[in-house]
Amino acid sequence: xxxxxxxxxxxxxxxxxxxxxxxxxxxxxxxxxxxxxxxxxxxxxxxxxxxxxxxxxxxxxxxxxxxxxxxxxxxxxxxxxxxxxxxxxxxxxxxxxxxxxxxxxxxxxxxxxxxxxxxxxxxxxxxxxxxxxxxxxx
Length: 138
Prior knowledge:
By secondary structure, the protein is an alpha+beta fold. The chain folds into 2 domains: 4-85, no CATH class; 96-137, no CATH class. Helix content is 40%, strand content 12%. It has a 4-stranded antiparallel β-sheet with strand order 1-2-4-3.
């Protein structure tokens, strides 16, 4: 699963959010063009020279805390979803286009398959103990 966290929220695929979080009948507010193509985002990155982050903030002001930013992704700017988004359950594969775009083939963080990423990450787990993270949160 491709997740791009920014100060304003999180970007992640809508397919993992709609059924469990929002219900199957939920309508997501969005610009219609963003719902059908990723060129909407590209326009703000290329033509508007990197203004997409600010445009997403404007979309939240216009449409609310959950907006569709592409046919495959939602952007969420709501602290109530933090625990749901960052849970440890589930198996998420990253999109190939999000991995290929980083030009870092073979890097642990850009391994698309969940199980392969888990196997590559296992030797590093001793350096990132969960116990240490839980004491920081309290």
